[in-house]
Structures are given as C-alpha cells and as structure tokens.
Amino acid sequence: MSSSKVTRNISRISKLTAKPRFRSTISSQVAPSEDENYTKGFYPVYVHHVSKVALERLQKDHSSWIESKGLDSGLHINPNGTFTLSFPAKEGFDSGRIWTSYDSSKKQHWLSVYRHKLAVRFLLKDNGQLTGQTDSNRMSSQIHAAVDQMLHSIDRAEANRSS
C-alpha cells in the first residue's frame, strides 16, 4: 500500500498528541473541511481508542523501529476501528503482520503479531474485568507495556532466527 493511500485512510483521525515521525502517520493537524477532503479523495475513518493508543505508542516512541522493519507504509485501518500493519513481502508471500482485534464474546482487546514462526497475542484491555470507570492513564500504561513487550518479542525471535 502506498504511503499516499495510508495517509488518505487516516487523515481524519483527530485529537492525537504524537508528532508525525514516519510516512504513514496519524495527524493531529486541523483537518480541512469535509467537502474539501472528499474532493481530494480523503474520507473519515473510525479508530477505536485502544487501537489509537497502540498506534500512538508505535508512532511516538518506536518510529525508527517501524521504519527499520518497513512497516511505515503498511498501515490499514479496518472498518471496526482496529488496525493491521503488514511487513513488506515479495508478491505472493506473507511476511507477517501486527494487528489489533476485539473479542466481543469476552470483551477483550488484543494486540497480535505473526512474523515468520512467531505468533503471539498480548491483552490490551479486558472490559469483562472492569469494575467501575477505568483510569485512562493506567489503561494507556498497560497498552504501552503490551506494545513494548510485542516489539521485544519480535526482536528476540528475529535474533534467534538469524543465529
């Protein structure tokens, strides 16, 4: 997917605090009017809060890692507000992906990775275990920890693969 398509897909996400650091960035800039966006091929997309926090973490604190893995042009926002980041691959091959998902039966948000022989899921948020209102700082910290743990798992698996 070209970076212009990625930028088009996510151009209308608002209220993000991270500064753009890689080609497929989420912008906190004030968006042009909706009529102007539609004439340029831009359209609004929904990104679930949990996925947005994970994307912000990747963008703000791990942009060089994202670029080094070629993930800076592989972002796809799904209609349900989750995302998929695809590793670059030769045509006809699958090099893996990172994605968020929501299990509606268990009310859980997940961060998953498939890369070579690595297939791991990290719990981002468990709505089934909530009692009262969740502290957003605590939730963000949990999501950040899951993102960091996922990146560490990928790096460790790739180091083991090359040795």
What is this structure's SSE topology?
Elements: H1 3-10, H2 34-39, H3 49-61, H4 63-68, E1 75-77, E2 83-86, E3 97-103, E4 108-115, E5 118-126, H5 136-162
Antiparallel strand pairs: 1-2, 2-3, 3-4, 4-5
Helix pairs in contact: 3-5
Give a written overview of the molecule:
There is one protein chain. The protein contains 5 helices and 5 strands; from the N terminus they run ααααβββββα. The longest helix has 27 residues, at 136-162. The protein is globular, with a radius of gyration of 16 Å. The protein has helices at residues 3-10, 34-39, 49-61, 63-68, 136-162; strands at 75-77, 83-86, 97-103, 108-115, 118-126. It has 163 residues and is α+β, with helices and mostly antiparallel strands. It has one domain (46-162). The model is unreliable at 1-31 (pLDDT under 50). The two termini are 31 Å apart.
